[in-house]
Amino acid sequence: MNIRIGISGYGNLGRGVECAIRQNADMELAAVFTRRDPKQVSVLTKTASVCHVSEAAEWKDKIDVMILCGGSATDLPTQTPEFAKLFNVVDSFDTHANIPKHFENVDSAAKESGKVGIISVGWDPGMFSLNRMYASAILPNGRDYTFWGKGVSQGHSDAIRRIEGVKDARQYTIPVETALESVREGKNPALSTREKHTRECYVVLEEGADAAKVEQEIKTMPNYFADYDTTVHFISEEELEREHSGIPHGGFVLRSGKTGWEEENNHLIEYRLKLDSNPEFTASVIVAYARAACRLYREGQTGAKTVFDIPPAYLSAKDGAALRAEML
Amino acid sequence: MNIRIGISGYGNLGRGVECAIRQNADMELAAVFTRRDPKQVSVLTKTASVCHVSEAAEWKDKIDVMILCGGSATDLPTQTPEFAKLFNVVDSFDTHANIPKHFENVDSAAKESGKVGIISVGWDPGMFSLNRMYASAILPNGRDYTFWGKGVSQGHSDAIRRIEGVKDARQYTIPVETALESVREGKNPALSTREKHTRECYVVLEEGADAAKVEQEIKTMPNYFADYDTTVHFISEEELEREHSGIPHGGFVLRSGKTGWEEENNHLIEYRLKLDSNPEFTASVIVAYARAACRLYREGQTGAKTVFDIPPAYLSAKDGAALRAEML
Q: How much is the pTM?
């Protein structure tokens, strides 16, 4: 099977997709679509075309799956249904509250065009969702916990950058180890926001800015920091660049549940990710689901799907017999 | 949806299935089938019938899914294909090397009868296999590790019990923590059998038995113990009963892999189970897949399936919209 992939949006996630395609022998990157001037965008894959996003329709028959690498706030809500009129698509839409609406929009577009659209692929939503779902189906009498980190939160870093006097910033979300341990021990704790995660901020100040005022503003920021134990470190621009330029992330999904006639036995299911690069890992998940999108389409399926709807084997380059022999 | 379940074989696993059914509101236990005299078998579920296994055919239209709780060595290779002629079936066939053959046998029986047969369900094979497969599809350039334990190995305990002078025994398989840590750190170690697990044995001697001889015989037993660092503790029958009557198990599936254009970033995917009761957890997985078997059958699908073939959503009592709203 040869799968021709298109990438729409060439930021960190788009480049991650490009790297992931290179690791999968059954795939090739056909073209990258950008809103910028294509002449100003140089991609890593020598054989790939770079096109303006307005030219996408011309690629209708030359691309098997279009991977949408835009943002969830403004890009994907309109882009995914639009592209689903022309292509099989995969996106990483991650605004949890709007997933049902997004699913409907993509579903009707993809059903009309006879294409497949897989939405909300990545690790959360994505692999974390899958693990929550499997675990809760296996242990109906149990409790779920999700911890994030240690990792960079883009949204929280941006929130700090918007404060007056801040030149640059990086925010890490860190799970509280003792909380994690009490879940692992089967204690089924009720954990407040503050008890689950701490927030650590590395901030570069503008010249002459008031550090105490900035720190106060960060620590009391509603929704973002006020409910957490937050630490603020002021560092130089050089240190930020040297020590905090990576985009690591990860986290833990746990389910603790009971079985037995008297529900006397405890079980713990734990799924953990430790990622050097959040966008590259997200991209790797997306690319595996692009394979699934292509297969589902070739089988004649249409409409929107999520990770819950897709047989695991569809992600793998190996066939059923090989999977049974080597991996079961 | 109401799913009527039959259980064939009422040992630890069968009783585990009975307990799991009780936790799932859309299921009921219709009947237990045994090779013993049904009058001598009392089950926990007051509403369930107890029948001799030879009467199973009479239940053809009164059971939606038959769960086969026999052993992989001699029961399941013949039972699963036989029962698949009459029922949708789920088994926990775990002789890895014979899975392809078993799959074929169940597939042809189930295709002929128009039923669904899900084989090799549990945690290994089962949830561990799923995690190996998902992780290798996501990180094609990586390395897999499976560690088992801490847990009771029935096969190893039985092997000790067959030694002359041994009255009873319990064997624990224990993962080596330093090996696990080196995998977590992304070092991709090449690990020998001895470096991955240790074996701990609790042995009750017959009166007058030669402890030194028994210990020597255990530690040098080929395949079972010779390749491991093995510790032998001689204890009283009372202590064995008091401290070692549980059937805990679990383990770890890890994949460490690289992404990036120069494959410069490391990622770790870790799945862990910590189980108080191996048979009850296995049973809980099987019962979730019984739901899937019933749905697939009602959709008109037939033949043998494994965990790789089944969309995750089919395991859950919630519908697609609820899963997307609550779990994605």
A: 0.96
